[in-house]
Amino acid sequence: MAVSPVHPTRPARGGPPPEAIHPALWRAAGFGRSRAPGLATGFAALDAELPGGGWPGGLLTELLLPQPGVGEWRLLAPTLAALQRGQGEHGAGSELPRSVMLFDPPARPCPWTLAALGLDAMQLFVVQGRGQPRRTGRTGRSGQGAPRARLPLPAADTLWALEQALASGHLGAALAWLPPRLPADALRRLQLAAQAHPGPVFLFREAEARSRPSAAPLRLLLTPGPSSCPDGLRVHILKRRGPLPGEPLLLALPPVLGSAARERVRDAVVPRPTAQPGALASVAQGAPSAASARPLSA
């Protein structure tokens, strides 16, 4: 009896796209689809490198920092201000103004700086862990423009509060500064909680965490720009649902220094021209310099 060989079946070409099978699938040559379009970051170059064309909703976004204050607030300000004005793009009712919650920020937000970035400090809610020094929620004599509330919680309960805030459905965005070396299971729990939240969730972590695995689908490393560009920010895309990233992006953030201060920084990094050897020889021989030869009336 002749036995015919059995060939493995191959999937027919022209079948359904991977995202039609499951939303978590995508082709390696393209970006993975999200449930809703991404929120515009305010920087066209960064939007072009993010799946969905902006900050994703329903997912964790990790921002790894060498130290706080490298420009993370100026990077997120356009998106946070749009959410506070009710200009979000995620889900029904996104035209309503949404608040922003901060969990364990390293310092008290400055209302004047936030206002200069287009943010409303009265729509910020701060949850401070008991491990952090407790600060008052009032600024100035009348306390106008200060964050609405500060709730002291232990570090473990801060993560629980973040999960509950994401499940509430009344939040525009969440920003959380996590303790170093956070366990992987805690990140997985936060990712599951973020799936119920239509807006963005930003986690700030130490730069050393880039070598450790994370459940966050989007991970960015933020470093200061070159000294010749004091308002620049380098964005290294470490992980995304899409092809491997290329070179880091250099974004021009809104300036925080005045024109005079920027000139001083530029002069400090630009080397001054050195005198020519011939001019030095003439001065050494006693010849008058151009400055001493000018009339006093000049």
Summarize the structure.
This protein has 298 residues and is α/β, with parallel strands linked by helices. It has helices at residues 18-21, 44-47, 72-84, 111-116, 155-168, 184-194, 259-269, 277-284, 290-293; strands at 60-65, 99-103, 124-129, 150-153, 171-177, 201-206, 218-224, 232-239, 249-252.
Helix amount: 25-40%
| Strand coverage percent | 15-25%
Order of helices and strands: HHEHEHEEHEHEEEEHHH
The helix-and-strand class reads alpha/beta
Shape: globular
Total DSSP E strands = 9
> Quick one: biggest sheet?
9 strands, mixed
- As laid out across the biggest beta sheet, the strand order is 4-3-2-5-6-1-7-8-9
Look at the structure and give the mean pLDDT: 76
Over all CA atoms, what is the radius of gyration? 26 Å
- Unreliable spans are 90-94, 133-143, 277-298
Measured between the Cα atoms of the first and last residue, the distance is 114 Å
Number of helical segments with 4 or more residues: 9
